[in-house]
TrEMBL record:
<dbReference type="Pfam" id="PF02926">
    <property type="entry name" value="THUMP"/>
</dbReference>
<dbReference type="InterPro" id="IPR054170">
    <property type="entry name" value="RlmL_1st"/>
</dbReference>
<dbReference type="Pfam" id="PF01170">
    <property type="entry name" value="UPF0020"/>
</dbReference>
<keyword id="KW-0489">Methyltransferase</keyword>
<keyword id="KW-0808">Transferase</keyword>
<dbReference type="Pfam" id="PF22020">
    <property type="entry name" value="RlmL_1st"/>
</dbReference>
<protein>
    <submittedName>
        <fullName>Class I SAM-dependent RNA methyltransferase</fullName>
    </submittedName>
</protein>
<dbReference type="InterPro" id="IPR029063">
    <property type="entry name" value="SAM-dependent_MTases_sf"/>
</dbReference>
<dbReference type="GO" id="GO:0008990">
    <property type="term" value="F:rRNA (guanine-N2-)-methyltransferase activity"/>
</dbReference>
<feature type="domain" description="THUMP">
    <location>
        <begin position="62"/>
        <end position="160"/>
    </location>
</feature>
<dbReference type="GO" id="GO:0003723">
    <property type="term" value="F:RNA binding"/>
</dbReference>
<dbReference type="InterPro" id="IPR004114">
    <property type="entry name" value="THUMP_dom"/>
</dbReference>
<dbReference type="InterPro" id="IPR000241">
    <property type="entry name" value="RlmKL-like_Mtase"/>
</dbReference>
<dbReference type="GO" id="GO:0070043">
    <property type="term" value="F:rRNA (guanine-N7-)-methyltransferase activity"/>
</dbReference>
């Protein structure tokens, strides 16, 4: 199987509602999208081309390269098709592999059973052809085989990413209830921040939003922080391709930038975590850190920037009076201190959002985990809005 040089169906997955931002990333890298759907996009490319995508994408989760498609109504039919595949040309017999799956078939009650069938087929193929077998388990840090099986249609993929791409590798200390890096990057893209004007992040928590803003503005890609991917464990992998792509990442970093990124939090521990994570990412010198109540956050004068809040959501039912006051204070802060800015509040609690006291110009849909969320946009212009203040609207689902 010459997978590195053979074009095939490739599925790039992402969390729900991140697809529009993933599409923008993929097309900006010069790839043609065959199909887009709510949790990803489909391309027709080689496994070698997947290397560049793995290193560059901020919003993706996994990049799956299809190696076979077939009909299967039952687990036995699935096994028969899989055991006939030339796995010995893909996986080192002295290596390690794991299996993941997305299964919707009436004969399967648990995906673990489908995973076991895939594993058995691969192991039995090796025993027949090599009289030996590779090790297998649940770790995703080596070769990962992915099964997509819906009704009688089965696709078998190599997961070229392995560990999820949604985590960008610099956040060694997660902090309390952190926002996933892929989600943070997508929300920043949704603001259409110009990457030059101030980016203000009160209540910064572990700093993911501020750090991702600095990474985007300096063109630092996630591949700079990671040295292991699923594609590295496929037979035929040429490490020079990887290192060549990584050199490109280093060369394209914008080193001399005039940025004002401000991250504040009332918790000294949270600001310390933010600073340490930013240092790991190499952007600590680009961010101003301050321990203070959000109302004391310094907002550069002149407007045209963005201020982004990701406050606690509380319980969806039964709004807490303390959080009601916090959301009202956030609205007051934006009205008084952020004139000329675009303000954003990311929340999973619509009842609390009503306490902000401002009418949102837009409500951009996201999920945080399984929680249905909105990023509320407020144009905080002072006086009469001028025609030149107009700008394109953020892309919605």
């Amino acid at each position: 199987m010459q997978v590195f040089q053979t074009k095939s169906k490739v599925i790039i997955t992402c969390n729900k509602r991140l697809s529009p931002y993933l599409q923008d990333e993929v097309t900006a890298l010069g790839y043609e999208i065959v199909r887009a759907f709510p949790t990803g996009v489909e391309l027709n490319i080689t496994l070698t081309e997947c290397i560049k995508l793995n290193l560059n994408l901020r919003c993706a989760s996994q990049i799956l390269y299809c190696i076979n498609s077939f009909k299967a109504n039952t687990p036995d039919e699935l096994y028969t098709a899989l055991v006939a595949m030339e796995w010995e040309e893909l996986i080192d017999f002295a290596g390690y592999f794991s299996v993941t799956s997305n299964v919707d078939n009436p004969t399967i009650t648990t995906p673990l059973f489908a995973n076991l069938k895939v594993k058995d087929a691969i192991v039995d193929r090796f025993r027949e052809k090599k009289n030996i077998r590779p090790n297998s388990g649940s770790d995703a840090n080596k070769t990962v085989v992915h099964l997509y099986w819906k009704d009688d249609e089965a696709d078998i993929f190599i997961d070229t990413s392995g560990e999820t791409l949604a985590k960008h590798g610099y956040r060694k200390i997660p902090g309390k209830a952190p926002m996933l890096e892929a989600l943070a990057a997508s929300t920043i893209m949704a603001t259409q921040w110009d990457q030059k004007s101030p980016f203000v992040n009160p209540m910064c928590g572990s700093g993911t939003l501020a750090i991702e803003a600095a990474l985007i503005a300096t063109n630092r890609r996630p591949g700079l922080y990671r040295m292991n991917y699923g594609f590295m464990h496929i037979l035929g992998y040429d490490e020079e391709v990887f290192f060549a792509e990584r050199r490109i990442l280093k060369d394209q970093v914008i080193k001399n930038v005039d940025l004002q990124i401000i991250a504040t939090d009332i918790s000294e521990d949270a600001v310390d975590v933010t600073r340490r994570n930013a240092k790991t990412a190499g952007v600590d010198t680009l961010i101003t850190f301050e321990v203070c109540d959000f109302e004391e956050t310094p907002v550069p004068e002149g407007g045209k920037g963005v201020v982004v809040f990701n406050p606690e959501y509380g319980e969806r039912l039964g709004v807490h009076s303390k959080l009601e006051l916090t959301y009202k204070r956030i609205g007051d802060f934006m009205k008084k201190n952020c004139k000329g800015y675009f303000g954003y509040i990311f929340t999973g609690n619509p009842d609390l959002a009503k306490k902000i006291g401002l009418k949102a110009d837009k409500k951009i849909e996201f999920y945080n985990g399984k929680l249905d969320c909105r990023m509320l946009e407020y144009e905080l212009y002072d006086g009469t809005r001028r025609p030149e203040d107009e700008r394109p609207k953020a892309k919605l689902d």
